[in-house]
Design brief:
The complex is a heterodimer of chains A (about 110) and B (about 110).
Chain A: E1 5-7, E2 10-14, E3 19-24, E4 31-37, E5 43-50, E6 55-58, E7 61-66, E8 71-76, E9 85-95, E10 98-103, E11 107-112
Parallel strand pairs in A: 2-11
Antiparallel strand pairs in A: 1-3, 3-8, 4-5, 4-9, 6-7, 7-8, 9-10, 9-11
Chain B: E1 4-7, E2 10-13, E3 19-25, E4 31-38, E5 42-49, E6 56-57, E7 64-67, E8 73-78, E9 87-94, E10 102-103, E11 107-111
């Protein structure tokens, strides 16, 4: 079952603009991960943010986590055409039997020159 | 490093045929996973393994079997293919259950 849900489903912006994607989830998490998927390729891990962290940066990417609202956001600054891809959040839940990672359905980002 | 390699990349089957998808990883990861990705459904976990010789069911295991005889390989089998199994199949691996997963580029499977 999908625990994380991304919003919006699709986003179209111009090069140079910022892109913000949101992820909401339902239960307490161990960590939350963001992935990118280019057309016809597998998912590529971008950033992992732990439940006790509020913000992480990696290059032009900024991820925030608000555990009180059960939500996360991925910000891509100064977007480029090469950022065109689908972006997925994945929540990691911990139980007695181990960890479970659940992917959302993704946000499709189109960056036009 | 090749990372995660899936073979074949494409395959067309007839209903009732069987086949095996192969996944190989060279990162010495303990955990391996098989997902299917369908339009509008996101990624759904079929089976996974937490180490050599172990397998466990995921969200949608029916119609599939898996084996992990060697740490670096994870095989997904379809014993009697059905049109509902038309999908893109992804294999992934990770060092532990809460760490990032590394994905292969998928196998596109069509069942007629």
């Amino acid at each position: 079952s999908q625990q994380g849900e991304e919003d919006p489903q699709a986003l179209s912006i111009q090069e140079g603009e910022n892109a913000t994607m949101n992820c909401s989830y339902k239960t307490s998490i161990n960590n939350l991960q963001w992935y990118r998927q280019n057309s016809g390729r597998g998912l590529v891990h971008l950033i992992l943010i732990r439940s006790n962290e509020r913000e992480k940066h990696s290059g032009r990417l900024r991820v925030t986590l608000d555990t009180s609202k059960k939500s996360s956001s991925l910000l891509i600054t100064a977007s480029r055409a090469a950022d065109t891809a689908s972006y997925f959040c994945a929540t990691v839940l911990q139980s007695n039997s181990g960890y479970a990672l659940n992917f959302g359905k993704g946000t499709s980002l189109l960056v036009t020159p | 490093n090749a990372g995660v390699t899936q073979t074949p990349k494409f395959r067309v089957l007839k209903t009732g045929q069987s086949m095996t998808l192969l996944c190989a990883q060279d990162m010495n990861h303990e955990y391996m996973y098989w997902y299917r990705q369908d339009p509008g459904m996101g990624l759904r976990l079929i089976h996974y393994s937490v180490g050599e010789g172990t397998t466990a069911k995921g969200e949608v295991p029916d119609g599939y079997n898996v084996s992990r005889l060697k740490k670096q390989n994870f095989l997904l089998g379809l014993e009697s293919a059905a049109p509902s199994q038309t999908s893109v199949y992804f294999c992934a691996s990770s060092s532990s259950g809460n760490q990032p997963q590394h994905f292969g580029d998928g196998t596109r499977l069509s069942i007629l």
